[in-house]
Every structure is written in C-alpha cells, then in structure tokens.
Description:
Layout lengths: L1 E3 L2 H13 L4 E6 L5 H13 L2 E6 L9 H6 L4 H11 L4 E3 L3 H4 L18 H4 L3 H16 L3 E5 L3 H14 L4 E5 L19 H6 L2 H12 L5 H13 L5 E9 L15 E9 L2 E8 L1
Parallel strand pairs: 1-4, 2-3, 2-5, 3-4, 5-6
Antiparallel strand pairs: 7-8, 8-9
Amino acid sequence: xxxxxxxxxxxxxxxxxxxxxxxxxxxxxxxxxxxxxxxxxxxxxxxxxxxxxxxxxxxxxxxxxxxxxxxxxxxxxxxxxxxxxxxxxxxxxxxxxxxxxxxxxxxxxxxxxxxxxxxxxxxxxxxxxxxxxxxxxxxxxxxxxxxxxxxxxxxxxxxxxxxxxxxxxxxxxxxxxxxxxxxxxxxxxxxxxxxxxxxxxxxxxxxxxxxxxxxxxxxxxxxxxxxxxxxxxxxxxxxxxxxxxxxxxxxxxxxxxxxxxxxxxxxxxxxxxxxxxxxx
Length: 280
C-alpha cells in the first residue's frame, strides 16, 4: 500500500494501473476512519482491481469555522488502520494547498436535492461537497466511487453533480454501519462527551420504533412522536425530522404513498451534531 500526498504521484500510479487494464474504485473520506469507512473500502476491493481511499478534510464544505477547526485529524492512525485491513492499494492524503492551489469559485446548480434538510440548514455545504468530490473524480477517474448511506442526502447531491457535469462514474451507495448499541458510526462520535455518547443510541432506537408505527400514524404525528421521544432526553435536542421519498427527496405528506420513504433526522448532542436515517 502506498501513501501519496501529491497529485502528480497519484497520476503516475494511476497511469500504470490503466496501462495494465485495471479497474479503479475510489473511497473519498475526511479521515478519522472507522469500520464504516472500512466497509466502503472492502466493497471497493471486491468490485475493482485497485482501491484508492482519499483522506482530506475539505474546508469548503464547512459552514461553521469551529466545526472545521475541531474536526478530528488522525492521519497516522488512519494509515495504520487501513494498512492492516489489506483492502487498499493507495491512500491519497493531500494538503489543502495541493487540492486548492487557488480558490475554487465554482457554483453548482444541484437542484432540489441540495435545498432541503441539510441544504437548508448548512448554507454552502453541498456546494463545497460538489467542489471536492468533482475534483477527486476528475483526478482519479475511477470506475466506481463509494459513499455511506448515513449521509443519505449527500449521495443524492453527488449523483446530481455527476449528472450535471457528465462525469462517467458509477456512484455506489453502501449500508450504514452501526455500533452494537445502534449508533451510526461517524467520525464525529469520538468528539461526544461520555454522557452524550451514552444517550446517543436513543436516536436509532426511536427511528426503529417510528418505523413500526409508520403504518398507523400520519406524517405529522409520526414526526411528533420522534421529536418528543428524543427531546425527553436532556442530552439530545432534535434539529429536524423529515420524511422524504428515497430517490427524489421530495417531502412525503401521506405515508400511504407506495413509494419508498426515508425518515431523516438531525440531532444536537451537546456541541456535536449527529445525523441518521431509516428506510420505512
């Protein structure tokens, strides 16, 4: 496994792989790796001859400067974690200057999927995601790129961006990986205090209970059930609950609709913001 920091080094390695006719999978990450990331790497390793994981904390997708400052950076541990897995061929860990030698002023018309939920509450976030993911896709030119379903809306945005830019890549969605107690794995989990971490699994358990009730409640009653149950816990505060159509992210008004529906939620746990979702 190689650890590369420069684009020219990566391009040289990629040229050699392509001359050998090898397929390439890309797993874009911001580091602080965990088993959820590893599941993406494993999936890429099964699907492709070569797997590349990028580790880059992208400044353009943070609308909160303190969030950017506090985001965990654990490159040495990440390299050890991935190396022992044996599933990855290259780690690409560039500097900010390497990725953005000059400001990226591109503005993307990502459509409706970028305007609801996270898009409404984190101005500029998805435009920053589109900037970095498009840069990585242009650079690596992978056959497939892998993203976790915890960031459910992000996947819809990336698919919109790929279509907008006519990038020839298959975007692969992979299931959420959870702790034994149900908490969705996230790099931000390590920033939770003991008490907030202890209580955070209530989010997933509430989504499980809500899924069971979805056949008997209307939309507003189901959203109220979720909000009230989580807010009963003094360590958690719901920011939003939405029920959306799985492909279009259209807000669901009637649970009797036959299309596939997803409950999406954002919860503040102290200073840390957690998101999760569940298909119903």
